Every structure is written in C-alpha cells, then in structure tokens.
Amino acid sequence: MKKCSVLIMVLLLTACGYHLRGTFDLPAGLKKVYLQGGSAPLREQFSKTLQGSSGQLVNSAGEAGITVRVFDADIKQRGVSLSAGGRSNEFELHYRLEYELRDSANKVLLAREPLDIRREYFNDQQDIIAKDNEEGVIRNEMYQQAVRGILNRMRAVLETKPKPKFK
C-alpha cells in the first residue's frame, strides 16, 4: 500500500509540471552555449545552470548553438549609510554588464544590451567575518540572477526568431 501511494505521488508531481528550483527547459538552440568574456564566477554559474538544465557550456564558438559575448562586466560596492563612528553600516553591491547574443553563424541575434543588478546588505561591525561571508553569498546570488536573466532573454530571442521556410 505504501509503495503504491508513493508511486501515485511521484506521478502526480511529474504530471503537474514540478521542476527543481533553478532548472530551465532549454530549447534545442540553447543546449550548447559558448560564453565569450565574463568573469570566472559568472562562467561557473553559467556552467552550473546549464548542466542542471541538460545543457552544456562549450569551449569554442564552433561547437555552440549560441554565443554570449560579455562586455564591461563590473561589480562595485559603495557605502549607503554610516554609523555614529563613521563606519559603513550598510553597503550596496552593483553588478553591471553588457552582453550580446550571436548564433552559430556569428550573426547578431541581440545587439548589446545592459544588465544591472543591485543588492543592499547591513554591515554589523561586531561580526565582520560573518558579513564577509554574507557578501560572498550575495555576490554569488547576483551572478546566478545574471545568468537566469541572460538565459531568459536568450529563450525569448530564439522563440521570436523567424523559422526558415521549406519548399
């Protein structure tokens, strides 16, 4: 009886469209992606996201269905508020990059487009080590958000791209 109920639950979960968090249904053109430029953390997040969605980050543009060219990627930190002692209580992280999308024939699918991500966090002067770790986690989440934004844009571009007409 227990095995039967577990089997029914599994079938219901798969039938309702349940997906693991962070996974994408990738169209055929996004199964192999080449990332030109970009930082090591961005590349790592791209690779993890694609692997989790049955895709692959390839080593050359010739192998890829689509190429993402990253320009001017920069992450900046600035103090937002100060304590009575003159130390920063709150910081803002700003991650900005520009990217363009090209197909396998090196034709521009999407001209240079900016992507901006901002996050703020509180800086507790009593627990500096934990706040350094928190900043690392926030930066990692910003890279994840950037990858999701680029992948969503890539899917939209591929869906609106005119299909070739066959005779």
UniProtKB/TrEMBL annotation:
It is found in: Cell outer membrane. GO terms for molecular function: lipopolysaccharide binding. Keywords: Cell outer membrane, Lipoprotein, Membrane, Palmitate, Signal. It is a lipid-anchor. GO terms for biological process: Gram-negative-bacterium-type cell outer membrane assembly; lipopolysaccharide transport. One of its GO terms (cellular component) is cell outer membrane. Its main location: membrane. It holds the Pfam family LptE. The keyword Lyase does not apply. Residues 1-21 form the signal peptide. The keyword Secreted does not apply. Together with LptD, is involved in the assembly of lipopolysaccharide (LPS) at the surface of the outer membrane. Required for the proper assembly of LptD. Binds LPS and may serve as the LPS recognition site at the outer membrane. Belongs to the LptE lipoprotein family. Component of the lipopolysaccharide transport and assembly complex. Interacts with LptD. This is LPS-assembly lipoprotein LptE.
